[in-house]
Structures are given as structure tokens and as C-alpha cells.
Amino acid sequence: MYDDITKIASEICGTPIALLTLIDENRQWFKSKQGLHIEETPREYSFCAHAIINPDEPFIVPDARYDERFHDNPLTTGEPHVVFYAGVPVKDTAGHALGTLCVIDNRPRELSEQKLESLKALAKLVNAHFELRITTIDLEETALKLQKAHAISTTINKEVQSLVSSGQVVSSVHFNELQEAANALEALLASSEVSKE
Prior knowledge:
Largest sheet: 6 strands, antiparallel
Domain GAF: 1-140
Helix content: 40-55%
Number of helices: 5
Protein name: GAF domain-containing protein
Structural class: alpha+beta
Organism: Adhaeribacter aerolatus
InterPro entries: GAF, GAF-like_dom_sf
Distance between the termini: 28 Å
């Protein structure tokens, strides 16, 4: 899916390079890329590191050769010869920028309002997919907790049925074991309810 988004971004904006970047403390790496053959760059040279400073606004550099921040950047002076850059931050559910969806060219240019709006819309799709992935992981974890709770519940029920059918008196040891199992079940169910919220 991410490759489709970067391909569409490249085609809409008419640029040879489109990237979906993720940025950590030391580097930016490319979750998806069109027109670029490297996998990552140091954060200190990253145009995208500048773009995520304001996560609610696009970041545009019409001609990096004449921009004080980038004119001597190795990505401008050498491969891939970044001259034009436009990036829209992609964010987590709390609104923190994780990286960008960006388009790059080796010649100066402007991006029309229509193309910029299209790039923003594609970045929103990336955000929605990130959120969906997080929700899916949360649901998988909740399902696992519920399976464990069901297993505990089944064990408790079998133990109680066994004791009842044999007519045995429940000793304090058995009672404590059953109580611990019931408490564990309650804790699992409570934590799954919290994660749903």
C-alpha cells in the first residue's frame, strides 16, 4: 500500500522521487521509495527532519541550492542532488510527527495548491493506515488476553464441577487456588476492557 501512495505522489506532483520517511534520533529511513536506491540517510542531512518540526504544516524548499539550510547539504551537492523538496508530516494518533510523505526533484520548481492538497490527502491516508495498524495490534492483544481468561474460566469451572460432583468439601487450599484463579481472570478481563477504551 505504501508503495502505491509514493507512486501516486510522484505522478501527481511530477517528481522523479517520492518517499515515505520515518525518522528516529539518528537517521531517516524509507518505508517506501520511488526513484531512489538508498535505504536511509543520517538525520543531520535530512530535509524531512526540518519538515517534522511543525507537524501541522507542509515544508517546501523550492531551490535548495539557494537556501542557507541546505545549499551545502551532501544530499544537495551530491547524489541524489535534491534541489526541490516538498514534505507533509505523517503523524501518530497523538499528533506527533513520525516522518514525512515527500516529493523531490533535481531541479527548482513550485508546487501548485492543487498538487499540495493532493500530497496532504495522501499523507492523511498514511496516517489512517498507521492508526489502523495500531488498532489491529491492540485488538490482537485483547483477543489473546480474552483467550487466556477463557482458559482460566474453563479451568475454574471444571475444578468446581469436579468438586461438586464428587461431593467433596472444598478445603481452604482448594478455595484459595480457585480464588487466585478467579482474581487472575478478573484482572485479565479488566485489562482488556481498559485497552478497548
